[in-house]
Amino acid sequence: MSVLTRDEAQTRAQIIDVERYTIALDLTTGEETFDSRAAIRFTAHAAGDTFVEVKPATLRSIALDGQLLDPALLDGNRYPLTGLTPGPHELHVDAAMSYSRTGEGMHRFTDPADGETYLYTQLFMEDVQRVFAAFDQPDLKSVFAIDVTAPEGWTVLGNGVAERTGDGRWTIAPTPLISTYLVAVAAGPWHSVTTEHAGLPFGLHCRRSLAPYLDADADEILGITRACFDRYHEKFDEPYPFDSYDQAFVPEFNAGAMENPGLVTFRDEFVYRSAVTDTERQTRAMVVAHEMAHMWFGDLVTLSWWDDIWLNESFAEYMGYQTLTEATLPQALRSVRAGETPFPDTWVEFGVTRKGWGYDADQRPSTHPVAPDPEAVPDTASALLNFDGISYAKGASALRQLVAWLGEKDFLTGINTHFARHKFANATLADFIDNLASATDRDVHAWAEQWLRTTGVDTLTADVHEPTAPTEAGQSWALAVDRAGSRPHRITVSTFDHALNTQAGPGHLAPRDRFALDIPGDGTPLVRPGRRPALVVLNDGDLTYAKIRLDTASWDTALGHLSAIPDALTRAVIWNAARDMVRDGELDPARYLTAARTHLPYESDLALVQGVLSFAGGQIAARYATPEARPAALATLTSLCRDLIRRTEDGSHPGLRLTAVRHFIDAATQPDTLQSWLTEGTVHGGPELDPELRWRILTRLAALGATDEATIDAELAADPSATGREGAARCRAALPTPEAKAAAWHAMFGDDTLSNYLFTATAQGFWQAGQDELLSAYVDRFYPDATALAARRGPAIAEAAGRYAFPAYAIDPESLATGTRALKDPALIPALRRKLADQLDDLRRALAVRTTEH
């Protein structure tokens, strides 16, 4: 299959304009293929040749302006259109197209809970070709009119309002001008919750087996949707540009969500079958806000080529978090602790979970600028690699810093100018920067060059000292900030003093001062009145994107008094600094665990508890601790989680208790307590075990060799759902027997029938820390087997294989050398090569942390 190059796209855009697609899809033709008929009206500006993309199971016929063409001329995914004359043309393509089990194109899923089948499209980048013939590039926007024939009893959803016209036929209202990758269709016996807001139909949809869970949360989801919709209309001059707003929670979805105009698709894990924390609900709400932002930035105004994907994702990421913080939500969704929003500060969760994703990606060899040069994204295969922590988290952080520097008023003025100038069209980075610059006297172009065209993470290090010359006013202290890097930063600095402890937990710290600081300044240390503070925190408020290093005295104070710092976002900045120092070999991982053990029992912000425990368990105990040190690390985590469970026995903090129970399960080295919980169906004192907790316990017992196939089969019989099947696959792969590992390996690499989710579940179970001897033979096998699998099954499975099936716990020089040699294999497809390069860099870092003397 040929990937589209930027040069080819630019050439084609000069040759043709596309006016309208008329698409007919017949979803009643069998379980393997569906029928697709496309009529494409386009205009050629000059005589010349071009091509149309299509990936059929069978190309039955193709005709241009009424003249039949030879289907045999299809070359991979391209059909040549030669000898075009200037003027209007109409192309007709009739094909049978294959259903997907990998979340690409038209994905087909049969729910094991009730046997019902659901279909949905995911057409991002170049997968529209799997559903209908198209001139598949973002700057050839068009109107799309789609008819669908579906089995009786099904509901069809699309970008516009869908109407049933009889005999299983549905007509979807024609779209405004949108790009090919944004077309969406979903069909099946959906369970729907519908309402109206601002004169538009709003809907939530999921498969029927999830109906009770969607119904339980429908008011919450719709309340958040309405509130974000209203807040965006306060921010943006352009009204919502489509005729409806549906949100479909679909099975086996590869991303978190996709911003199809009028029909946003979400992974249906967001319809919670089991108990979740407020932070997880906050994440779902943020994704709702993120995808809605795309209706303007991405859908109304679309990138011209994929080098500007950050414009879509960074903007939506920033707007999602900021708008969720600002939106006024219904009284029923408010909490006493959070005032007018139902969640704590969303930027704490961003700092703890998302920024680390960006920092990590930006320190790997595969780093790239937020806005790469167009030449660095020569084709769609290379563009696909940039959907990472840089395009999302770093880009959003850069925009947050831009707003801090520019001011929100001027920022929104520039954004609204951007929408007005380019609505229903395409725009580039240069357009975006020009529109921002039109709203301010500041040099936005210089800012963009410094922030968007560079790579890597700056490091800001505090130097707190006595001033060289005493001030007349009396006692004083001085602050200088060393910047390793090249970007300007506007930050807030906060200072704290020791105070009498008026709360539970280690000694209280009282805020003293808070002031703004521009870096670089004039090079003169900033002199402040008063005695030297006990703690000086750079980047309090987390408004910039940089690694932070405290001065030695402040660092000692922070580690000793972290839970006594009043503001959660300040604590997040310090925990992130500790995380970065562990990864950089500057802080002993055991000291991080000690800090977690000391302070988490007193931590009030759930996002911080979850973030610290995830890093402590998933990285320190599992990867950074040597095999000899791992038991002690797990014991520390077990003890910490047991304390948190005891702290929450009164039922006052259900989210904290659930988090502690989850991490206690993951860190357990002995099966007795877990067996007891599973047998009794409850954690002593609660909660009762829901499906998620039962499968989590069973996975850990499987890894410990404390369960068997029969028990797994019995659990699956009790929970025959899609997530039950995934849980069973994960458990079977985790069993520490040669037979179980061989069967799991064959399922992943020898048999291409696993769906994307079942493949992922199997891979997650297969590699277990502590099963080194049993798994050692598979380390060398991974690279050739994954290379062949990716070539057969494509980028989505390649991504899953590189992310989940990689031997992440084989942390030794031999494993690193094996992987490094494998990177030279020319047969690696780009998606797998990039993922392996990142994984090997993480492995190299883990090995360095293990061997660093502290």
Tags for this entry?
854 residues, 26 helices, 43% helix, alpha+beta
Outline the structure in words.
By secondary structure, the chain is of the alpha+beta class. It contains 26 helices and 28 strands. An 8-stranded mixed sheet has the order 5-4-7-2-1-10-13-12. A hairpin with a 2-residue loop joins strand 12 and strand 13 (169-172). Helix 2 (211-235) packs across helix 3 (278-294) and helix 19 runs antiparallel to helix 20 (722-734). The chain is globular, with a radius of gyration of 28 Å.
Q: Structural class given helices, strands, pairing?
A: alpha+beta
Helix content: 40-55%
* Main pleated sheet: 8 strands, mixed
Give the low-confidence spans. Answer: 334-341
Oligomeric composition of the shown chains: single chain
Q: Distance N terminus to C terminus?
A: 51 Å
* Backbone shape: globular
Radius of gyration: 28 Å
Q: Using DSSP, what is the number of strands?
A: 28
- Total number of helical segments? 26
Task: Give the helix/strand layout.
Layout: H1 6-15, E1 16-26, E2 33-44, E3 48-53, E4 58-64, E5 67-69, E6 78-84, E7 87-98, E8 105-110, E9 117-122, E10 143-149, E11 155-158, E12 162-166, E13 169-172, E14 185-188, E15 191-197, E16 200-206, H2 211-235, E17 245-250, E18 257-258, E19 263-267, H3 278-294, E20 301-303, H4 309-326, H5 346-362, H6 380-384, H7 390-406, H8 408-422, E21 425-427, H9 429-437, H10 444-452, E22 459-465, E23 476-484, E24 489-498, E25 509-519, E26 526-529, E27 535-537, E28 547-549, H11 552-561, H12 568-583, H13 589-599, H14 606-624, H15 630-647, H16 654-667, H17 672-680, H18 691-703, H19 709-718, H20 722-734, H21 738-750, H22 756-766, H23 772-793, H24 795-804, H25 813-822, H26 830-851
